[in-house]
From TrEMBL, chain A:
Coarse class of the protein's main subcellular location: cytoplasm
Keywords annotated in UniProt: Protein transport, Transport
Family note: Belongs to the STXBP/unc-18/SEC1 family.
Gene3D superfamilies hit by this protein: 1.25.40.850, 3.40.50.1910, 3.40.50.2060, Syntaxin Binding Protein 1, Chain A, domain 2
Location relative to the cell: Cytoplasmic vesicle, Clathrin-coated vesicle; Late endosome membrane; Lysosome membrane
One cellular-component annotation, GO: clathrin-coated vesicle
Full protein name: Protein regulator of cytokinesis 1
Protein encoded by which gene: PRC1
GO biological process terms on file: protein transport; vesicle-mediated transport
Stored SUPFAM superfamilies: Sec1/munc18-like (SM) proteins
PANTHER family: VESICLE PROTEIN SORTING-ASSOCIATED
Membrane topology recorded in Swiss-Prot or TrEMBL: Peripheral membrane protein
Top-rank taxon: Eukaryota
One Pfam family hit: Sec1
Biological source species: Macaca mulatta
TrEMBL record, chain B:
Subunit relationships: Core component of at least two putative endosomal tethering complexes, the homotypic fusion and vacuole protein sorting (HOPS) complex and the class C core vacuole/endosome tethering (CORVET) complex. Their common core is composed of the class C Vps proteins VPS11, VPS16, VPS18 and VPS33A, which in HOPS further associates with VPS39 and VPS41 and in CORVET with VPS8 and TGFBRAP1. Interacts with RAB5C. Interacts with STX17, MON1B. Associates with adapter protein complex 3 (AP-3) and clathrin:AP-3 complexes.
Example GO biological process: endosomal transport
Domain Vps16 N-terminal: 4-420
Gene3D superfamilies on file: Vps16, C-terminal region
Residue ranges of coiled coil: 349-376
Record keywords: Coiled coil, Endosome, Lysosome, Membrane, Protein transport, Transport
Residue ranges of every copy of the Vps16 C-terminal domain listed in the record: 517-835
Keyword rRNA-binding in record: no
One GO CC term on file: lysosomal membrane
Similarity field: Belongs to the VPS16 family.
Protein name per Swiss-Prot or TrEMBL: Vacuolar protein sorting-associated protein 16 homolog
InterPro entries according to UniProt: VPS16 (IPR016534), Vps16_C (IPR006925), Vps16_C_sf (IPR038132), Vps16_N (IPR006926)
Species this chain originates from: Macaca mulatta (Rhesus macaque)
């Protein structure tokens, strides 16, 4: 079970270096320069510290600047003088300085930057921990983080050598790629001549594939994320899991032997595996009987600790499973999954629509309802006008009228749209291109088409064969393709694209798919004809998800890697799931 | 060999001095040097002559001419002096000519006579006029010291960062000092001056009298003083013809000499090598040149012409009307090799090589002799070093040949020193060439470094030579070729007679995309010369859009800057330009500009959302973006407004905007919300409790939970809540209340639009199996099995499923059969299945 990698699978690079780099820099910033003694979380409340110096470690957001300004101004009113230091991570933005200036405290604070952009969450997973990337870029059209991505890629290539093969799809991917290339050119020579450690890099925009991210996850790790929310690689298991009265924070990564074996498994297998594991464990404990004193000593000193550790983890995961079972195996969940599959396959649309309507009427969950509406819209290339209006009305009645703004957001991001004759879009486009005559004109029309583009999901699905033909039962124990992460009903689009491109080593032959994805101008391949790359490195692939990736996608690609002898490394702006995407689009009352 | 040491003059027992010709001067001097103000820059730098100075009091109508020549006498510039009378000339470390005027103004000229800037030495100097001035070099740069008519000193230690210092007064000073000099010790500039028999040292704070130790008695006046190149040594010439030499700190005497010439010397300079123990001073009179040191005898030369001495790091340059010579102490390596009858290993090696070329067996003898003493390595090193100090390429070559010959017999001689010496000599010979005219010695070159030498070549506009040197030395492009090309381009943009098009094209052709060349720097220079159009053309070649922006802003091409910033993809840069634009343009124009740049617009909106809400509204207004305007007001109704009236008003505005945006749906929804808000307010007033800001659904639920069924019905009718929703809502609410009676009544009120399965489900959720069973019987046939399973009646579910002959239902029931109790049912199903299959 649990993907044992093929014996010839390449070794992963050591990413702990990133952690060390970041830690050393932060320690330097904090200790050497500011002598920090205590850390507080930045919250919207007055700081109670009495120290002479306050140091803020913040993301460069206007909101944070206003909070700092309010603190400083409060101190000023109270006649206190303190030193203030703001450390921006990963970088400082001019807008932030502007706000400090407008609030009249620019002279009172000093600023620093902590260029920490890559957090290794696991041996094969790097996260930029920028959940705001998704909303900022895909909704607000704010490109500020793209530079950060380019810098992160630059850091990777200085540490692990150049990437001989680059592929990408999506507007943002292309921009990030170009910015990154510029950076490399500016600092020419640093990576030159280095042997590449990672043979391929693949950049992918989240909006290329919203569908996968909107589906309910059924792989263990994804399910844990959907149910308990994994934050920065760790999860808080509440009392219902730990079976004691305390919550427990558990790190979820390859270090956890039990978790590592079940993380990529379809949930239906997990219980069986865990009980098998429990039996094995018991057998190992049982070996003690009939041991002589010397063997016993050996057992206690060497094995017992490991067994106990494993025991503890096992009981935690069994607890988590039970909790998930309780929530998810009810009738509702089965029906929900059934509806999702119907939407993906495109049949019984009417039935699905009334299911969604009922879902809304029953106030099951605002986020879930929204997710289903979006899934319906994307798979169907927009809702038919009647449904579009009635579902929205129902939603507003159920969950509150402020969601009128949420709908406007979703429409802008192309997540929830109305089926309309094609002319409205082109009208906007031609109006815009009349306005602007210079170079940027092309970019704007691109921007429009990317924002309001049609999903064409059905056609893409057919082209890429995303819905596997079912002959008989899909054996989830022995998966035969990546569809297993969605119970055999659907191969994740993002992963399929990556698979196809890697197979061809280019976009050749995928023109039609690229066109359907509205990415004709944003699919690129760049290969350097260097023979320096070892065959080992050529089987290492860095996949960069701009706007977040889900654990299901990670599991699917891990599966693909095992099948083909690759190993994938994931770089994402943040690990996401359907709920996080929907929340990012929601307008909540202040 | 004898002839080679012919120009060697011994001074004492241990040192030789030699004088050799660098160039025969090409200049065509009309005046005598003595009639001119002369300034020659160290390190083989240029010579400036200002003819016809004012002290000769010729006819004032003739304007003097300022000439600048290279060290080989090639004219570099000539200009008519139109400013005031000049007291002193001097070169700065950057090879800029400083001309100190009588009124204390200092005019700065470039090597090619181009005026750079000017600065003043202060009011005090202006009032009292300049009596005398010196330009001196410190580790910070170049300094200027001035003696005013009031016999006070003012100095600045660095003209690049002008800080004037007025030195303290010398007590009782009535007339000008007989001689004075600027000293630099411990990074502080001092003035040393002689008044009669007394010496005074001026620092920032005080004036102190000093006495040189061991000074011969009978001195009534000092006629000349000289500080060494490194400010370490000082020489004093007295009216008795006595020369005192010691440390500049005046703590130690090195030696003394009596030349018995009482006439004041024209010039006196130090002539010593770094790391040499020998100290010597060169004294020049009208027709006599004397080298004196720690020896009873001096070396004397006759000067045929009027000459001028230039102190250098390792010797003295002497130029006159016709020649340019170098006088220095013979370096140790050369002395060892060339001294008559020298048996030094280097000398033997040189001999051996010569014999070898003659194909004589003596070569072997010499070589053996060196090898027997085990000195071959030393011999090779000596030859290499000596080659560096030779001026004639022929002699350099024969020494290097000897070194190379010796190297063959050594196993592991590191080749670096030989290779580097060959390279250095090649560079040195190239710049010493007559046409270039930079007579650097090896020691000076090493002190100056190749980077500075390249800068000086660039300064002389000798771009091709500089590039050749870079390529020859394989310097990294960024430090070498590209830097020089960039300088060339900066020079090129100043050629005003060439059209913008041609200049831009020429520059791009030469530079291409050489790494490290910044087109924006060149463009900045073009802009500096007032060629804005050219600057914009050049910026087009700049590959990094980000680099173009600051200059474009400076040139007030803000709109272009904005599109470039957007192209660069650096949002921070876009933002910088935006705020620049915001301050520069009036609001209307600013908005118009934004309108054409969606990316900038969205960025600015983001900013406004947090900082300037009103501006955001204006932006939408100007764009007639009613949709966003509506959203804006909706948001305001939640965030900004507290009072109900205000919120309703905001919503009304929003609804109007939505109508304008032809978004009927949003408009209607907003109007409904207004109605709901008003209603909620009334409910709160009449019934108490919390209603405001609940959704419609929650409002109705709250009413039912509070027992206000009539109101609830009314509300549902008013807002046209669909039946299905209402049934769900009521069902859930009543179950929550556990009002089973009412629920049953409700279920019978009419046929349920949502069927009866939900009733079963909800009762089971409240763990009321009894009630659930009531509804299970009413569930329609399709969902009957489900309902029966829900209430736990597996047996009946099985019957129904069998009746339906539905395979899916059968397996569903089967999966619910657990344990022994349902064993019989399971069997029944299996039987039914088997039967079905038979058929």
């Amino acid at each position: 079970m649990a993907f044992p990698h093929r014996p010839d699978a390449p070794e992963l690079p050591d990413f702990s270096m990133l952690k060390r780099l970041a830690r050393d820099q932060l320690i330097y910033l904090l200790e050497q320069q500011h002598e920090v003694d205590k850390l507080y979380k930045v919250e919207n409340k007055p700081a109670l510290s009495s120290s002479e110096q306050l140091c803020f470690l913040v993301r460069p957001r206007i909101k944070n600047m206003r909070y700092i300004a309010s603190l400083v101004n409060a101190d000023k009113l109270a006649g206190r003088t303190r030193k203030y230091k703001v450390i921006f991570s990963p970088q400082k933005f001019y807008a932030c300085e502007m706000v400090l200036e407008e609030e009249g405290i620019y002279g009172d604070v000093s600023c620093d930057e902590w260029a920490f952009s890559l957090l290794p969450l696991d041996v094969d997973l790097l996260s930029m921990e920028l959940p705001e990337f998704f909303r900022d870029y895909f909704l607000e059209g704010d490109q500020r983080w793209i530079n950060t991505v380019a810098q992160a890629l630059h850091l990777l290539s200085t540490l692990y050598g150049p990437f001989p093969n680059c592929y990408g799809i999506g507007r943002c991917a292309k921009m990030a790629y170009e910015l990154w290339r510029n950076l490399e050119e500016e600092e020419d020579g640093e990576t030159k001549g280095r042997r590449p450690e990672i043979g391929h890099i693949f950049l992918l925009d989240r909006d290329v594939d919203f569908v996968t991210a909107l589906c309910s996850q059924v792989v263990y790790e994804g399910l844990v994320d959907d149910t308990f929310r994994i934050k920065c690689g760790s999860v808080d298991f509440g009392p219902e899991v730990t079976s004691c009265d305390k919550s427990l924070k558990v790190l979820l990564n390859a270090e956890d032997k039990v978790f590592n074996e079940i993380r990529n498994e379809h949930f239906s297998n997990v219980f069986g595996f865990l009980s098998q594991k429990a039996r094995n464990l018991q057998a190992q404990y049982d070996r003690r009987r009939g041991m002589d004193i010397k063997q016993m000593k050996n057992f206690v000193s060497q094995e017992l600790k490991g067994l106990k550790q494993e025991h503890r983890l096992l009981s935690l995961h069994i607890g988590a499973c039970e909790s998930i079972m309780k929530k998810k195996t009810k009738q509702d969940f089965q029906e929900l999954i059934k509806t999702e599959h119907a939407l993906l396959e495109g049949f019984n649309i009417r039935e699905s629509t009334s299911y969604i309507e009922e879902h809304i009427d029953r106030q099951v969950s605002p986020i879930e309802s929204l997710r289903l509406m979006c899934l319906l819209s994307i798979t169907e290339n927009g809702l038919i006008p009647k449904d579009y209006r009635s579902l929205k009305t129902q939603y507003l009645q159920s969950y509150g009228p402020e969601h009128l703004l949420t709908f406007s957001n979703l429409r802008r991001a192309g997540l929830l749209t109305e089926q309309a004759p094609g002319d409205t879009l082109t009208a906007v486009e031609s109006k815009v291109s009349k306005l602007v005559t210079d170079k940027a004109a092309g970019k704007i029309t691109d921007a429009f088409s990317s924002l309001a583009k049609r999903s064409n999901f059905r056609a893409i699905s057919k082209k890429l064969n995303l819905i596997p033909r079912v002959d008989g039962e899909y054996d989830l124990k022995v998966p035969r393709d990546m569809a297993y992460v969605f119970s055999g009903a659907y191969v994740p689009l993002s992963c399929r694209i990556i698979e196809q491109v890697l197979e061809r080593r280019s976009w050749q032959g995928l023109d039609e798919v690229v066109r359907l994805l509205n990415c004709s101008d944003f699919a690129f391949t760049d290969m350097t004809k260097e023979d320096k790359a070892s065959s080992e490195s050529l089987r290492l692939i860095l996949v960069v998800f701009l706007g977040g990736c889900t654990f299901s996608e990670i599991s699917a690609l891990r599966f693909l890697g095992r099948e083909k002898g690759y190993r994938f490394i994931f770089l994402t702006t943040a690990v996401t799931n359907s709920a996080r995407l929907m929340e990012a689009m929601s307008e909540v009352k202040a | 060999m004898d002839c080679y040491t012919a120009n060697w003059n011994p001074l004492g027992d241990s040192a030789f001095y030699r004088k050799y010709e660098l160039y025969s001067m090409d200049w065509d001097l009309k005046e005598e040097l003595r009639d001119c103000l002369v300034a020659a820059a160290p390190y083989g730098g240029p010579i400036a002559l200002l003819r016809n100075p004012w002290r000769k009091e010729k006819a004032a109508s003739v304007r003097p001419v300022l000439d600048i020549y290279s060290a080989s006498g090639m004219p570099l510039a000539s200009l008519l002096w139109k400013s005031g009378p000049v007291v002193s000339l001097g070169w700065s470390a950057e090879e800029e000519l400083l001309c100190v005027q009588e009124d204390g103004a200092v005019l700065v000229y470039g090597l090619h006579g181009d005026f750079r800037r000017h600065f003043s030495m202060g009011n005090e100097v202006l009032q009292n006029r300049v009596l005398d001035a010196r330009i001196f070099h410190t580790e910070f740069g170049s300094g200027v010291a001035i003696l005013t008519g009031a016999h006070r000193f003012t100095l600045s230690a660095n003209v690049g960062d002008l800080k004037l210092r007025r030195m303290p007064e010398v007590p009782g000073l009535q007339s000008a000092p007989s001689c004075w000099t600027a000293l630099c010790q411990d990074r502080v500039a001092h003035i040393l001056l002689a008044v009669g028999p007394d010496l005074y040292l001026l620092d920032h704070a005080a004036c102190s009298a000093v006495t040189p130790p061991g000074l011969a008695p009978g001195v009534s006046s000092f006629l000349q003083m000289a500080v060494s190149f490194t400010y370490r040594h000082l020489a004093l010439f007295t009216d008795t013809g006595y020369i005192w030499m010691g440390t500049a700190s005046l703590k130690e005497k090195l030696c003394e000499f009596n030349c018995n010439i009482r006439a004041p010397p024209k010039q006196m300079v130090w002539c010593s090598r770094p790391r040499s123990k020998e100290r010597a001073v060169v004294v020049a009179w009208e027709r006599r040149l004397m080298v004196v040191g720690d020896a009873p005898e001096s070396i004397q030369f006759v000067l045929d012409e009027d000459s001028y001495l230039v102190p250098e790091l390792d010797g003295v340059r002497i130029f006159s009307h016709s020649t340019h010579e170098f006088l220095h102490e013979v370096p140790a390596a050369s002395e060892e090799i060339f001294k008559i009858a020298s048996m030094a290993p280097g000398a033997l090696l040189l001999e051996a090589q010569k014999e070898y070329e003659k194909e004589s067996q003596k070569a072997d003898e010499y070589l053996r002799e060196i090898q027997e003493l085990g000195q071959l390595t030393q011999a090779v090193q000596q030859c290499i070093e000596a080659a560096g100090h030779e001026h004639q390429p022929d002699m350099q070559k024969s020494l290097l040949r000897a070194a190379s010959f010796g190297k063959c017999f050594l196993d592991r001689f590191p080749p670096d020193s030989f290779v580097h010496m060959c390279q250095d000599l090649r560079v040195l010979n190239a710049v010493r060439d007559y046409h270039i005219g930079i007579p650097l010695t090896y020691s000076q070159y090493k002190q100056l470094t190749i980077q500075v030498l390249l800068d000086r070549l660039v300064l002389r506009r000798l771009y091709p030579l500089a590039i050749q040197i870079c390529e020859y030395l394989r310097l990294p492009e960024v430090q070498g070729v590209s830097r020089i090309l960039a300088h060339w381009a900066c020079y090129k943009v100043q050629q005003k007679d060439v059209s913008d098009e041609d200049v831009a094209r020429a520059i791009n052709q030469k530079l291409g995309d050489t790494p490290g060349v910044s087109y924006s720097d060149i463009a900045a220079r073009a802009y500096g010369c007032g060629r804005t159009e050219l600057a914009i053309k050049l910026l087009e070649y700049e590959p990094r859009s980000g680099e173009q922006v600051p200059l474009l802003l400076k040139m007030k091409r803000s709109k272009l800057a904005l599109s470039k910033a957007i192209e660069s993809g650096d949002t921070d840069l876009v933002f910088t330009v935006l705020l620049h634009l915001k301050n520069e343009l009036n609001r209307g124009d600013f908005f118009m500009t934004l309108r054409n740049q969606p990316m900038a617009l969205s960025l600015y909106r983001q900013f406004c959302k947090h900082q300037e809400l009103e501006t955001l509204k204006d932006l939408y207004n100007q764009d007639d973006n009613h949709q966003e305007l509506g959203s804006f007001h909706i948001r305001a109704s939640y965030a900004a407004e507290e009072r109900i009236e205000g919120r309703v008003a905001a919503l009304q505005t929003a609804a109007d905007a939505f109508y304008k945006a032809k978004n009927e749906f949003a408009a209607k929804a907003t109007e409904d919300q207004m109605r709901l808000l008003r209603l909620q307010r009334r409910l709160e007033d009449e019934l108490g409790g919390q209603f405001l800001d609940l959704s419609l659904h929650d409002t109705v639920t709250t009413l039912i939970l509070g027992g206000h069924n009539k109101r609830a019905e009314q509300l549902a009718r008013d807002f046209r809540i669909p039946d299905k929703r209402l049934w769900w809502l009521k069902l859930t609410a009543l179950a929550d209340l556990e009002d089973w009676e009412e629920l049953e009544k409700f279920s019978k009120s009419k046929k349920s639009p949502i069927g009866y399965l939900p009733f079963v489900e909800i009762c089971m959720k409240q763990h009321n199996k009894y009630e659930a069973k009531k509804y299970a019987s009413r569930v329609g046939p399709e969902q009957k099995v489900k309902a029966l399973l829900l209430v736990g009646d597996v047996a009946q579910a099985a019957d129904v499923a069998i009746e339906h002959r539905n395979e899916a239902e059968l397996s569903l029931v089967l999966s619910h059969c657990t344990g022994a109790t349902d064993g019989a049912t399971a069997d029944k199903i299996q039987r039914a299945r088997a039967q079905a299959q038979k058929k």
